[in-house]
Amino acid sequence: MWESICLTLAATAGNNIGKVLQKKGTVILPPLSFKLKVIRAYAVNKAWVIGFLMDIFGALLMLRALSQAPVSVIQPVSGCGLAILSIFSHFYLKEVMNAVDWMGITLAGIGTIGVGAGGEEQEPSSISIFQLPWLAFVVSILFVLLNGWLRICKHQRREQEMIEFEVVEEIIYGLESGILFGIFK
């Protein structure tokens, strides 16, 4: 199982980084067409070719990972590619990230790998029908607390014109999405 998770991480890194390299290579290239001159320009552009090959190699690794593990494991782990892409963008494209960005990248990476690793075959557990209302109650309380935090942050933003509010809002929506994903998985 862990081999397929590692293959998925390599595959998603290849796909995402390959696309960035292709995009960077197209900055000086004409729009893609079937003219021989244009195709030759793409074929000799080093950044575009490396990006294209990384993208293809990533797709092949993904197929290999899918042949070894179920989609319910591979697909969540492939979401880690966005965290890998963020790290690549910081070091290669020199994009600036603050501490909250780094924390989000770390949590996204750990969370997606955790969801994938949790997809291993497990013994089915029985949930009593009487436990479901408690689960719904706990989730409702959690959503009320998160939305209360969101309202407090909105209020502080209006008073102090905080710029980082969007980051807090994205974190809250991400937490709520993760909770719903975990419940309905």
Automatic annotation (TrEMBL):
This is Magnesium transporter NIPA9.
